[in-house]
Design goal:
The complex is a heterodimer of chains A (about 375) and B (about 140). Chain A is built from 10 helices and 19 strands. Chain A is of the alpha+beta class and about 375 residues long. In chain A, the strands form 5 sheets. Chain A has a 7-stranded mixed sheet with strand order 1-19-11-10-2-3-4. A 5-stranded mixed sheet of chain A has the order 14-13-12-17-18, with helices on both faces. In chain A, a hairpin with a 2-residue loop joins strand 15 and strand 16. The chains are: A alpha+beta (about 375), B mainly alpha (about 140).
Chain lengths: ~375, ~140
């Protein structure tokens, strides 16, 4: 049983209408009609990004990256320890208070694994976007490329009563939309990523690869691999425990070490990392451990990359090879673009060019989601039954 | 079964015809005109047709089927015209207003007509929803 239905609404409520005005300024509307706020949401395993802006404008009123974590305050915490004696904390605040809360990550491998926490987290996202709590919110939410119906239904259920309408769109396609520079699309020489590109979106739970060639990618054009940042963390964590038993380093600390030092390619030994173990400062040699864990990602991604390249038509493949773009947190792994490019070249691919999406790597999916929200027609939204 | 029969009721036929016009206008790049039609006549016709449906579910089923049918019908018609017009013009002696299209058109991976203008994001979303509907049936 599904929780959603499609519905056509009167033109006056059209978010995509060029004549749309902020609700407060539209005299024909009933006074009680809530303003419509459009939201682009990248619901990530480790970090989520939300962008929001009023319908009928190009304004962005909220742009935030939030760790995807919910902290439930433990029983017996003394009054005043937690600000406003809150019972639930979110994101950075939950991490800061990790001693006093039970931390729950609502997502695993890119999909909702704890529905109740996911619902709490979405409520928090809603409050970030609309502190008044009065707006009618329509959200475009990114999903992993191969998300099944159950994973999609879990998102819809978690969003019920929080957002009024929703649209679920695969993340790598949203990344391409977000990466596209709309102001340059008609300029000569600009290579529109939506026309012919291959996106590699490496997140916490999944690595998603997608051919984007001027039409909406089919299932054959997308590959999602359940190996990404978290899997690298796990390999590194195991290796650290093997090499330095009883080190006491938490998974969060191991992730921070990875985020600062991740690299692929030949070993970068020596790589001495300073950590505090049992209150004492120590220096650990982690060059090989980090390199081996990160290179495992290359071994997972590369076959998927060549599979998608082989699916491209012979007319488009040469240009496609010039337009391979890496985004998501994994794009911050040092050398990932050059290693993939060299491997393609060594395997005989014609003049491949792999590049990084750039500094907005955490936001492209959400930017694309907000663009999609602004362009969606009325009959494309799925109404969430309250 | 009820949905399959009701789609031939006059209110739904009207909705189907309007969708056909809208898809044709979009294929011609007249997106503003298409949107205007969508937000006025189509919204009204759809509301009227919904009232004739036995349930919201039935109305939704009919509507989605009409959208898919009319989209495909327009795409087929446009593709057919692109092949037929130059062919007829050639045979009838120089009446062609534009250069002849190749006699054999290689099928594109997605079955959509070549867009006159760059495709908009909403068109991509349409493709996505069509794929999802196909996958669920």
């Amino acid at each position: 049983m599904t929780t959603t239905t499609l519905e056509r609404q009167p033109a006056a409520n059209s978010a995509s209408s060029s004549s749309a005005q902020p609700a407060a300024a539209a005299p024909a509307r009933p006074a009680a009609k809530a303003a419509t706020l459009l939201l682009g949401l990248d619901l990530g395993t480790n970090k989520s990004c939300v962008l929001a802006g009023p319908a009928g404008t190009n304004d962005i009123t909220v742009s935030k990256v939030v760790p995807s974590v919910v902290g439930y305050v433990k029983d017996g915490i003394v009054d005043g320890i937690i600000t406003n004696n809150a019972r639930i904390l979110y994101g950075e605040e939950a991490l800061t208070q990790m001693l006093h809360v039970d931390l729950v990550a609502p997502l695993a491998e890119g999909v909702i694994s704890h529905p109740d926490s996911a619902r709490d987290f979405m409520q928090h996202i809603r409050l970030l976007a609309d502190p008044s709590g009065k707006a009618d919110i329509r959200a475009v939410v990114g999903v992993p490329a191969n998300a099944g119906e159950q994973a999609r239904e879990n998102i819809r259920r978690s969003a019920q009563g929080i957002f009024s309408r929703i649209l679920l769109i695969p993340e790598p396609f949203l990344a391409a939309l977000g990466f596209r520079d709309d102001s340059r699309v008609k300029q000569p020489g600009y290579v529109d990523p939506v026309v012919n590109s291959l996106f590699i979106d490496i997140g916490g739970g999944t690595s998603d690869l997608c051919l984007v060639q001027g039409y909406f990618p089919t299932r054959d054009d997308q590959i999602s691999i359940a190996f990404a940042g978290d899997a690298i963390d796990e390999l590194l964590f195991d290796e650290l425990n093997r090499t330095y038993p009883n080190n006491g380093l938490s998974r969060i600390t191991v992730r921070e070490i990875k985020e600062r030092n991740a690299y692929v390619g030949p070993s970068r030994k020596p790589m001495d990392i300073k950590v505090v173990i049992g209150g004492k400062s120590r220096s650990l040699e982690l060059g090989d451990a980090i390199g081996n864990a990160c290179n495992a990602l290359i071994d997972k991604i590369y076959p998927a990359l060549t599979t998608l390249i082989s699916a491209a038509s012979s007319d488009s493949v040469v240009t496609l090879l010039q337009n391979i773009i890496i985004t998501g947190g994994g794009s911050q792994i040092k050398g990932i673009d050059t290693v993939l490019q060299k491997r393609l070249a060594d395997d005989g691919y014609e003049n491949p060019k792999v590049r990084l999406a750039g500094q907005d790597f955490q936001r492209y999916v959400a930017i694309g989601a907000l663009k999609a929200a602004r362009a969606a027609r009325e009959n494309q939204w799925q109404v969430l039954l309250g | 079964m009820a949905a399959a029969l009701h789609r031939f009721d006059p209110p739904w036929i009207k909705v189907g015809k309007l969708y056909r016009r809208i898809f044709f206008l979009r294929s011609e790049g007249e997106t503003d005109h298409a949107r205007e039609l969508e937000e006025t006549e189509l919204a009204e016709a759809t509301a009227q047709a919904r009232r004739h449906a036995g349930s919201e579910f039935e109305a939704e089923s009919i509507l989605q089927q009409l959208i898919a049918d009319e989209k495909e019908r327009v795409a087929d018609a446009v593709a057919f015209a692109e092949i037929l017009v130059p062919m007829l013009a050639d045979r009838l002696g120089g009446l062609a207003a534009r250069p002849a299209a190749p006699a054999v058109v290689a099928p594109r991976r997605p079955k959509v007509s070549p867009p006159v203008e760059p495709r908009g994001i909403a068109d991509f979303i349409d493709d996505m929803l069509t794929q999802e509907r196909r996958a669920s049936t």
